Each structure stands twice: as structure tokens, then as C-alpha cells.
Amino acid sequence: MNDGHEYFLSAINPSPSVGEELTVLFSGEGRPLSLHKMGPTIHDYYLLHTVLSGRGTFSIRGRSYSCRAGDTFVIFPGELFFYQADEHQPWSYVWVALVGHGMDALLTAIGTSPEEAVIVSTLNTKTSGYYAQLRDCFRQDAAPELANLEAGGWARLLLQQFGLAKRRLALGFDDAATDKASNYVVKQAIQYLSLQYARPISIEQMSAMLGYHRTHLCKLFKQATGLSPMQYLMNVRMTKAERLLDETAMTVEQIASSVGIGDALYFSKKFRKRTGRSPTEYRKALRNGPERSSPAAEAGMRFDDRII
């Protein structure tokens, strides 16, 4: 127990930079006891708390907020504040302390100020992970300057997540906003598949990168394009292969590898299924005369037009 807490963990930046736009001073996690309070007092740094569980109250500039799991409250330097854990459901929270000449602009950019000092619905796997990374990077014995650099990156990612939460709130969580967000993530997936088609692609990894569960992303993708992500990817690969067969003298094995398919026999099988010809037959037909558009060419690159 530490100063009215059931547990209290804190990691301090051993080498904070001076004069930067953003610098992390320390980060931690704690579970206060019932009715534990801080203030009224002031700090000379920015201090952001994200509530993990329970309840509490936070006051600044004469306004009192009732905070619960998922809310983040922001203490501004030189501003008188007060906060207290609930009597029956005392909160637990994580925090990060920041300084820097760019902090006011960064917080303004995400819609936060002493007059609007609480952001709701900020807790997710990303924010939890960023807080954990902040604490972990300060526990490294070697290269404190690099730990300081790393901490600044995690802090910026945290602020980005808080900004996204504020934006979702401003959109109102209505159907139109949900559709817009769904279309956006499908466009991101299409862009990823269209650019990374030459590499081995895991839909699980792509989903995690975009912050969606695989099943949910695949459902959104099929609703928007009529295809699963893997079907869309195969169309992209076949369209690229057709172009390479037409414009280069590369072998079938080289073309298969260039479009992300390591097995030339598997590539040939898929190509025949799409075009009705083997790659060699397709190339020969191109050399002998005009070729009609194949099913792959007609289908492969048009589905993003359906995303409004």
C-alpha cells in the first residue's frame, strides 16, 4: 500500500529532454482506497489519468465531472484541481505526466482544454498497451536517452487515441458515423491489399493492424465489396499477373513470385480458374491478337468504387 492506495506503481523517466514539444516525466498505475482524494492543489505539469474501473469525481475550473471506466481526465499545469475516489466503487487508473512547449497545441488538437477536461470512452486494447509500454521503457537499465525517445512516441500514440475517442463522440455514434467508420476501415484494407499483394498476407495480422477483429473486418469487407479479403487479394494478384504476362518476358515462376504466390503450380491453377487459360496460353493469345477482358481484369480492381 502507498499513500492511500491498495497498490501504486510508478516509472520515472531517467533522462527527460528539455525544450521539446512533448516530454514524458513519469507514468504509473494505481488503485486508491475508498474516498482517497488529491487537492485542491496545482501541478506544474500536465497529468492525464485514464480510469480502468470503478468511479470517482474530478473538478477543475469550477466544473465537476463524474468519471468511470474508460474516461480520461486531464490536469493542466497551474490549474487548481481536485479528485476523489468513490466511496463504494473506488476507481483504479493509469496515468502519464507530460511537459513541453507543444502540449497546449496538442491537447487543443484533440479537443481538450481546462473547460473540457474529460474525454469519455478512451479505454481500449491500444491505450492499455501504450500505457504499459510507457512504464516498461523506463525500466530499462541501458540507454536512458533512448527510453526518453521511445516514451515520447508512446505518449503521442496515446494522445492520438484520445483524439479519436473525442471525434467519435462528436460524430454522435449514429448510424451515419458508424457507416463512415466502416467504409474508412474497408478502404484502408483495400489499400493495404493493393499495395502489399506481393508479400505473404495474413488477414489476422491485417485485422489487428487496423484495430478490428478478423471476423468483424471480413464481414464489413464483404458487405462493401461483395468479396472476402482473400478473394479480393486473389483478384488483385491475378490482375497484376495478367499485366506482367502482357508487358514482360518473365517466366511463369517469376510472375507467380512477383504477385505473392510462391507455388507456380498453384498460381497456374488459380490463373486458369480466373481466365479460362493457363498463363502460357494467355500470353500466347495476347501475342497472337487482341485479347478480350478476362474475368479477373473485369473484377479485380473495381470494388473500391462501391465504397462511398
Automatic annotation (TrEMBL):
<dbReference type="Pfam" id="PF02311">
    <property type="entry name" value="AraC_binding"/>
</dbReference>
<feature type="region of interest" description="Disordered">
    <location>
        <begin position="285"/>
        <end position="308"/>
    </location>
</feature>
<dbReference type="InterPro" id="IPR018060">
    <property type="entry name" value="HTH_AraC"/>
</dbReference>
<protein>
    <submittedName>
        <fullName>AraC family transcriptional regulator</fullName>
    </submittedName>
</protein>
<keyword id="KW-0804">Transcription</keyword>
<dbReference type="InterPro" id="IPR018062">
    <property type="entry name" value="HTH_AraC-typ_CS"/>
</dbReference>
<keyword id="KW-0238">DNA-binding</keyword>
<dbReference type="InterPro" id="IPR020449">
    <property type="entry name" value="Tscrpt_reg_AraC-type_HTH"/>
</dbReference>
<dbReference type="Pfam" id="PF12833">
    <property type="entry name" value="HTH_18"/>
</dbReference>
<dbReference type="InterPro" id="IPR003313">
    <property type="entry name" value="AraC-bd"/>
</dbReference>
<keyword id="KW-0805">Transcription regulation</keyword>
<feature type="domain" description="HTH araC/xylS-type">
    <location>
        <begin position="187"/>
        <end position="285"/>
    </location>
</feature>
<dbReference type="InterPro" id="IPR009057">
    <property type="entry name" value="Homeodomain-like_sf"/>
</dbReference>
<dbReference type="InterPro" id="IPR037923">
    <property type="entry name" value="HTH-like"/>
</dbReference>
